[in-house]
Amino acid sequence: MSDFNSTAGRRELRGALNTSRRLLLGVAVFSAFVNILMLTGPLFMLQVYDRVLASNSEATLVALFGLISALFLFMGLLDHARARVLARAGARFQDLLDKRVFDAVLRRAVAPSERSRPQTGLRDLETIQRVLSSPAPFALFDMPWTPVFIFIIFYFHWMLGTLAVAGGALLIAIAFFNEWASRKPMAESQRASAQSEAFSESLRREGETVQALGMRGAALGKWRKFRELALATSVHASDSTGGYATASKTLRFFLQSAMLALGAWLAIQQKLTPGMMIAGSILMGRALAPVEQAIAQWSNVQRARDGWNNLSELLAKTPPQQPRTELPPPKGRVDVQNVSVVAPGERAPTLRGVNFTVEAGRALGVIGASASGKSTLARALVNIWKPAHGVIRLDGAALDQFEDDVLGGYMGYLPQDVSLFEATVAENIARLSDQVDPEAVVTAAKRAGAHDMILRLPNGYDTPAGPSGGRLSGGQRQRIALARALYKDPAVLVLDEPNSNLDAQGEGALVNAIVEAKARGRTVIIMAHRPSAIAACDYLLMLEAGQPRAFGPKDEVLRQTTQNYQQLAQGKAGRVQGAPAVAGPAKPADLHLAASKPANPKSAAGAPKQHEAPAVAASKEEG
């Protein structure tokens, strides 16, 4: 992570922290009074040893004791008040960034590499909040008073002051050594813990597979290795920080005894009063307390610092979206213009040179073998993955001209891997809206052919559905997800393998949903393997290795593709028999229907117009 990359994120974090500057100023004022009142104890000792004992005055002792009791009570109230104010400053910091950080986590989660590792954004934010609300910042507010206490010790005697300065220097050296020695072990501990957590989470998600394949023993063994590594690195990090914390505490106890010994010697030499001897020891303990406190809290501070750096990087990589001019609701025309897509975390494009146009009220089927780029195109169409080259337009406006939530309202998306949220079926269909529209939910379910199926669930639309659908079958989850895509009748439907888990009845409901959506003037784009999914499509786009190979009216694409494959098969048969090949592998131009003449005059008027090779545009008329 470079400083350049995280500069914007650091600026955003500092801005959130600056909103609590009045609270922090209040903590500083309270700290000033608390540290001034810390002189109560030394001054009391001076008066007791040098005045009360010398005069044997009980009245003076009672008066002094009453005074310091009131002062200590006031100091305790101020100390409690600054702790409460600091806790609220930390809470305000977290409250300001909670939504922003979670939004950044969700936006980063579209990258496959990010989904495979645990997201620590919110945990990092909570770590910073806990440190802000802990005693750790008190060391920062109390440390400016250390020179004041040392100056008073020098006032008693220069030798006492020199001892206090030497002790402080030793404690500061221990703090720097603690930072140097614990940095690597702490990083290793956090990395090992993250690996252990990610592996255990993957086992939890795939619990059925682990059980069915008898992998529990092997899984537990591998998990145990991760845990042992995490535990070992944690112990090593604890040893590093704990050793220096113990050293600082031991040194402070020794310094207090050394201060008493030196003070006693000076008192014997008549260069110091007994009261100054005791007061000097107390003052030195108070002067060095912030340093010792910083060392004791160093592991927490270090975790907060790492969390600050992680959040800076996260926020810098996902800047807040700027408000955009609200555009009128689209009718559904989709233009894909020379689009190439590079999957997040990858270098080579998984989709190259795709061009087509689908008018509202038409359906396009995208076919191709596995890893041909169908799901990549689906993600690009709904603006999950941004094109590395080219542009995708909705009614002439580039997708990035819409705010994400606004664009999402115009899109109905059914991903290949269906998952439901921790909510009821109705809330899942309503896309987790705060205000569920029951009529719109039921309408979407009926259009998806899922209404009767949902009514048969234990609690109907109020049945809880977990992340993987709970007790729901794969087909039930897919039909509920289709209803979610159809919720409030979006202008464009992008369905990625929508029938992968459906039975014959479900496939029939899917075809009906597509036909009805077209009748309402909605655009439908389907990524399909099975022929039944493209039954209601007007046009087909064939992808091969991330590139378009054919596009045009459905029947012509299927007929032309079949002919090309037959020619390819005949060519292979001829080579096996020793005869020359009849036809080699079909070239993109051979499969590109719109670039060739229509099969008959009737189809000439309806053939899609070609934008540019190798892809084409689907027109309103059907061939």
TrEMBL record:
Q: Where is this region: Disordered?
A: 571-623
Subcellular localization is given as: Cell membrane
Q: Which PANTHER family match?
A: ATP-BINDING CASSETTE SUB-FAMILY B MEMBER 10, MITOCHONDRIAL, ATP-DEPENDENT PERMEASE MDL1, MITOCHONDRIAL
Provide the ABC transmembrane type-1 domain boundaries: 25-303
Transmembrane regions: 23-47, 59-78, 138-157, 163-181, 250-268
For whether the record's keyword set contains Cell cycle, the answer is: no
GO molecular function list? ABC-type oligopeptide transporter activity; ATP binding; ATP hydrolysis activity
Cite the record's Low complexity compositional bias ranges. 573-608
Domain ABC transporter positions: 334-570
Name of the protein: Type I secretion system permease/ATPase
GO BP term, example: protein secretion by the type I secretion system
Alphabetically sorted, this entry's keywords are: ATP-binding, Membrane, Nucleotide-binding, Transmembrane, Transmembrane helix
Q: Which domain of life is it from?
A: Bacteria
List, alphabetically, the GO terms of the cellular component aspect. plasma membrane; type I protein secretion system complex
**Alphabetical list of PROSITE patterns matching this protein:** ABC_TM1F, ABC_TRANSPORTER_1, ABC_TRANSPORTER_2
For membrane topology, the record states:
Multi-pass membrane protein
The answer to keyword Zinc-finger applying to this record is: no
Alphabetical list of InterPro entries matching this protein: AAA+_ATPase (IPR003593), ABC1_TM_dom (IPR011527), ABC1_TM_sf (IPR036640), ABC_AprD-like_6TM (IPR047957), ABC_transporter-like_ATP-bd (IPR003439), ABC_transporter-like_CS (IPR017871), ATPase_T1SS_PrtD-like (IPR010128), P-loop_NTPase (IPR027417)
